[in-house]
């Protein structure tokens, strides 16, 4: 009965929280974000928290090129990440004093770098991760059980179905990451850990010691795998229903008539391509009946057709969400892939670096994308053929639309889920009972190596004792009593 009452109370509280934000006491949240495309996600989360009455303080590099003072946030200008690391003593000496006086309820950080976790521990503030990468590996590897037999290392180019030799390589890649962690990452952060948190602080444990992990992935995009109670999946939480296009863009889209539109973008880091490649791509586009909107900041390719519009700014999500969009040509960044899933736009992938190939592979395996390698794009009309295949084979569209329906079939909007868990941590001053204890274990304890060795030893001892006992018994039965006694005399 008491449990039932509690349950009803919790449900009531949940509904109130969502519907009547003005009734909630605002918390003080300290945010340590990461630059570039990572900021896109953090910014959306910050805005959602701000609109619910929380006050936010963003710690950002003074020379940051992406993180803007965009609304009533208090921005603390710190130096860039590298500088921040080298200047942490200074920062901790006086900046942190001020931070400590503010009495923050929560530190929200992207653990792609380790300073957020360090600061949260130093100030003894509950910590929430908005995570895709944890320093050198995909975020889930940081905390969830990750059997290498069916969970491919990002960068391996494998799926969840691996052959024997692929599994061998998957294991080797895993050990390389572990070595890199030990020889590079830990060397940078461990001295700071010891300086500020005492000599018994181990950065390997600290870097994963967060209350809640808001994972920017989900199982429509990712392969199914084990997880832990404090990992919350919110991949694609940044996607919103498309807004109307600008008049100019709308006119261009409409002029495509029944042929519809192709969108191409290679992300924030690659504004332009080598001339020959750009010309090849432009020539391929020119041969298509569809209109093309290409986010490109390089010089205009000489082969550009009159069906292709070059833009240096892209209302990407609104274009992808437009029902006239037939195809998305992308480099395969996580945000773009999740937008493709959300809006149900089939993909031709041109992966460039990082996790992009693996991201695209997820979609290709599920039938919603076709991957081209950059080295073969300009050969044998490969680019044109790939585009025509994805445009003309209905399965690509059907598969990605199915993924889109699965992705959208959720009990709560993902951004609300994310906000709920952040507020949950503030209400309970941590993640309560959700945290599995694995974060504080060295690998040999986690994998029970010592226990297995101990048990193996015990079994061997028992076997040995039994064998010796049988041997003695055998000998006494055989009437070799004399010999046995001689032997006993020897051992005494
Ligand atoms: C933060 O302030 C509390 C007192 O409010 C103090 O006990 C603690 O040592 C301070 N921590 C740091 C890192 O300055
Ligand atoms: C675009 O170019 C094609 C030939 O390449 C031509 O037939 C067509 O009329 C042109 N369209 C416009 C709107 O200029």
Oligomer kind: single chain
Which strand-content bin applies to the residues? Answer: 5-15%
Sketch the major β-sheet. 7 strands, parallel
* Whole-number count of domains: 2
Tell me which ligands are bound. Answer: 2-acetamido-2-deoxy-beta-D-glucopyranose
Family: Belongs to the UDP-glycosyltransferase family.
Organism: Poecilia reticulata (Guppy)
Pfam family, one: UDPGT
Membrane topology: Single-pass membrane protein
Annotation keywords:
single chain, 492 residues, alpha/beta, Rossmann fold, 2 domains, seven-stranded parallel beta sheet, six-stranded parallel beta sheet, 48% helix, disordered N terminus, binds 2-acetamido-2-deoxy-beta-D-glucopyranose
Explain what this protein looks like in three dimensions.
By secondary structure, the chain is of the alpha/beta class. It has 2 domains: 23-237 and 430-440, Rossmann fold, CATH 3.40.50; 247-408, Glycogen Phosphorylase B (Rossmann fold, 3-Layer(aba) Sandwich), CATH 3.40.50. Helix content is 48%, strand content 13%. It is built from 19 helices and 15 strands. The protein has a 7-stranded parallel sheet, with helices on both faces. Strands 12-11-10-13-14-15 form a 6-stranded parallel sheet, sandwiched between helices. α5 links the parallel β4 and β5 (127-131). α2 (37-51) packs across α16, α5 packs parallel to α7 (164-197) and α12 crosses α15. It is globular. The termini are far apart. Bound molecules: 2-acetamido-2-deoxy-beta-D-glucopyranose (2 copies).
């Amino acid at each position: 009965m008491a449990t039932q009452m509690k349950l009803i109370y919790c449900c009531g509280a949940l509904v109130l929280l969502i519907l009547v934000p003005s009734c909630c006491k605002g918390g003080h949240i300290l945010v340590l974000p990461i630059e570039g495309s990572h900021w896109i996600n953090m910014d959306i989360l910050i805005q959602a928290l701000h609109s619910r009455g929380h006050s936010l303080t963003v710690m950002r590099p003074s020379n940051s090129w992406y993180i803007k003072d965009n609304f009533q946030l208090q921005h603390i200008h710190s130096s860039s990440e590298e500088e921040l690391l080298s200047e942490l003593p200074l920062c901790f000496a006086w900046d942190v004093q001020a931070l400590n006086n503010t009495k923050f309820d929560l530190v929200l950080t992207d653990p792609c770098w380790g300073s957020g976790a360090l600061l949260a521990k130093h100030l003894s503030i509950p910590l929430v991760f908005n995570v895709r990468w944890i320093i050198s590996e995909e975020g889930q590897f940081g905390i969830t059980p990750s059997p290498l037999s069916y969970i491919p290392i990002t960068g391996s180019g494998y799926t969840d179905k691996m052959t024997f030799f692929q599994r061998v390589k998957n294991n080797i890649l895993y050990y390389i990451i572990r070595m890199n962690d030990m020889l590079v990452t830990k060397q940078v952060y461990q001295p700071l850990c010891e300086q500020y948190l005492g000599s018994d602080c181990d950065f390997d444990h600290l870097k994963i010691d967060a209350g809640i992990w808001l994972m920017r992935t989900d199982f429509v995009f990712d392969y199914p795998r084990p997880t832990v109670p404090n990992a919350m999946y919110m991949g694609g939480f940044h996607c919103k229903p498309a807004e109307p296009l600008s008049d100019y863009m709308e006119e261009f889209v409409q002029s495509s008539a029944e042929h519809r539109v192709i969108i191409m973008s290679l992300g924030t880091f690659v504004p332009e391509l080598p001339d020959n490649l750009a010309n090849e791509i432009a020539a391929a586009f020119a041969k298509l009946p569809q209109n093309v909107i290409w986010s490109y900041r390089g010089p205009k390719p000489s082969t550009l057709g009159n069906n292709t519009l070059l833009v240096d700014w892209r209302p990407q999500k609104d274009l992808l969400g437009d029902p006239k969009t037939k195809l998305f040509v992308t480099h395969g960044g996580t945000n773009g892939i999740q937008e493709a899933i959300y809006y149900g736009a089939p993909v031709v992938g041109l992966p460039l670096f990082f996790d992009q190939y693996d991201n695209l592979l997820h979609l290709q395996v599920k039938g919603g994308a076709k991957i081209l390698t950059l080295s073969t794009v300009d050969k044998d009309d490969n680019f044109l053929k790939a585009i025509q295949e994805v445009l003309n084979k209905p399965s690509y569209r059907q598969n990605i639309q199915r993924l889109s329906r699965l992705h959208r079939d959720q009990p709560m909007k993902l951004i609300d889920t994310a906000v709920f868990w952040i507020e949950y941590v503030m209400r309970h001053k941590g993640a309560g009972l959700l945290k599995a204890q694995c974060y504080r274990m060295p690998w040999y304890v986690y994998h029970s190596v010592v226990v297995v060795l101990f048990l193996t030893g015990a079994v061997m001892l028992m076997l040995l004792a039994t064998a010796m006992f049988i041997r003695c018994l055998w000998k006494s039965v055989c009437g070799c009593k004399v010999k046995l006694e001689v032997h006993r005399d020897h051992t005494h």
